[in-house]
Amino acid sequence: MRTMTFPILVELGERPAVLCPDCSAEVIPKQGVTVGDLLSQWLNPPAGAHIDIKEMALRVSIAQKLRKATTTLRLEDAEWEKLKECVEACNFVLISDDITAIYDALLNAVPEIEPEATEKEEK
Question: Distance between terminal CA atoms of the chain?
C-alpha cells in the first residue's frame, strides 16, 4: 500500500478547461480541477490506443478511488505502479507547476511498512 498526499492546485483551478494530455478528452471544471479529476483522466489510453477488459477494470478501480479522494489517496502497490505508468506515458500540451507537483506527489507516495518486516528487524 502507498499513501499519496495531494498538492494544492494553484494554476489549473483557474483555467476554464484543461486539455487532457494525449487522450483527446477535456476536463471542464465546475469549481476548479481537482487532483483526482486530473489523475483519473490520465488513466485513459492515448488517442487511438486500445486496452483489454482486465486493463480497463484495473484503471476504472483506480479512477473511482481518485474521484472519491480529497486530500490523500491509498493505493495498492500494483495500482500505484499502474497510475505512475499511465502518468509517465502522457504527452502534455502545456507546462504547469501543478502538473509537476502532482507527479512529485505521486512519486513521493509513502509506502506502508509491512508489520512482518518490522517484527523481523526487531529480532
Answer: 24
C-alpha cell at 92: 502534455
CA distance 8 to 10: 6
CA distance 72 to 45: 24
- Tell me the H-state helices in the chain: 35-41, 53-68, 77-89, 97-107, 115-122
**Coil, helix or strand for 4?**
strand
C-alpha cell at 101: 507537483
Mind listing the pLDDT tens digit for each residue in 34-64?
Answer: 788 888 888 998 878 899 999 999 999 999 9
Q: Which cell goes with 45?
A: 489510453
Helix/strand/coil for 25: coil
Sheet holding 110-111, edge to edge: 72-75, 2-5, 110-111
> What predicted TM-score, i.e. pTM, was given to this entire model?
0.74
Q: Where are the domains of the chain?
A: 2-109
Helix (H) or strand (E) holding 74: strand 72-75
Q: 3-class DSSP state for residue 81?
A: helix
